[in-house]
Specification:
By secondary structure, the protein is mainly β. It has one domain. It has a five-stranded antiparallel β-sheet, with no helix packed on it. A four-stranded antiparallel β-sheet has the order 3-2-6-7, with no helix packed on it. The chain has a three-stranded antiparallel β-sheet with strand order 5-4-10, with no helix packed on it. The protein is globular and about 55 Å long.
Length: 263
């Protein structure tokens, strides 16, 4: 009985604890929080929103930055909302890989995020995209543009300045794959341990630069600082590295990204 009561109480406070673990908990320390000032060949984006994808055209940004030390590459991100409005009736089956919100129940108290079950599918419009983009970020999720990127490989390097074509000898590149329980898009039903996620292709390798774990509560994030190599459709290669994922006021999923193109 005591265990049931404890689980119930935790389910009530879980949403706030998860959000506090993802957002800044020390805003009061600063009257005006300091800002991130990326260096050349680096971009910064606050990707902490649950409802936004942030797109970047890496080829265009690299061309602009090449001969312009004052170029603000971070300003090139294009932010687009995740479609949330239902376009049809909810369904109790899945497996069709349609655009929409997939509600999953998570066994927070036992198996954690790895133990989950599908509950409901709500159809929505497909995710809008800009005309030109290379990769996009949403919190701890990353996707690539299949028209531009063949796949991604995690290199063993941890210094992007060391990257050159010779490191690609044994590279194996992974394309984006379907995901329906990882791009969390709505916290309103977390009290029942059910979280809607956007059904969309993501790159599991590149998303590995930042992973969230529950338990514990608040969640913990693991930062992987390896350099990731993108194989482009035109035969060129690009490099990305997550340098940091926390804003000056403590908000998680605020990404500082090193980039290099072409190799």
């Amino acid at each position: 009985m005591l265990k049931k009561i404890s689980s119930y109480i935790l389910s009530l406070i879980l949403p706030a604890m998860v959000l506090s673990g993802c957002e800044g908990g020390f805003d009061f320390v600063y009257d005006e929080p300091p800002t991130i000032e990326p260096t050349k060949w680096q971009v910064y984006i606050d990707a902490s929103s649950w409802t936004e994808w942030h797109y970047l055209d890496l080829v265009a940004v690299s061309e602009q930055a090449k001969d312009n030390d004052g170029y603000d590459a971070s300003s090139a991100f294009i932010t687009i909302e995740i479609p949330m409005e239902a376009t049809g009736d909810a369904e109790a089956v899945n497996g069709h890989r349609k655009p929409g919100l997939y509600k999953y129940w998570y066994d927070i108290f036992n198996g954690g995020l790895s133990k989950n079950e599908f509950r409901e599918f709500i159809p929505t419009a497909a995710q809008p995209e800009p005309e030109s983009w290379t990769f996009a970020v949403h919190r701890d999720n990353v996707r690539t543009n299949p028209a531009v990127v063949k796949g991604v490989w995690e290199s063993p390097l941890t210094d992007i300045s060391d990257v050159n074509p010779t490191v690609l000898t044994d590279a194996e590149f992974t394309a984006d794959e379907w995901s329906e329980n990882e791009v969390w898009s709505d916290a309103s039903t977390m009290m029942s341990l059910i979280v809607p996620s956007q059904g969309i292709n993501t790159n599991k390798v590149l998303s590995g630069w930042l992973t969230m774990s529950i338990p514990p509560i608040p969640p913990v994030f693991a930062h992987n600082n390896h350099v990731f190599i993108l194989a482009m459709q035109d035969g060129t290669f690009a490099a990305l590295q997550l340098a940091d994922y926390i804003s000056p006021n403590g908000t998680k999923c605020c990404l500082t990204i090193n980039y290099k193109y072409p190799l």
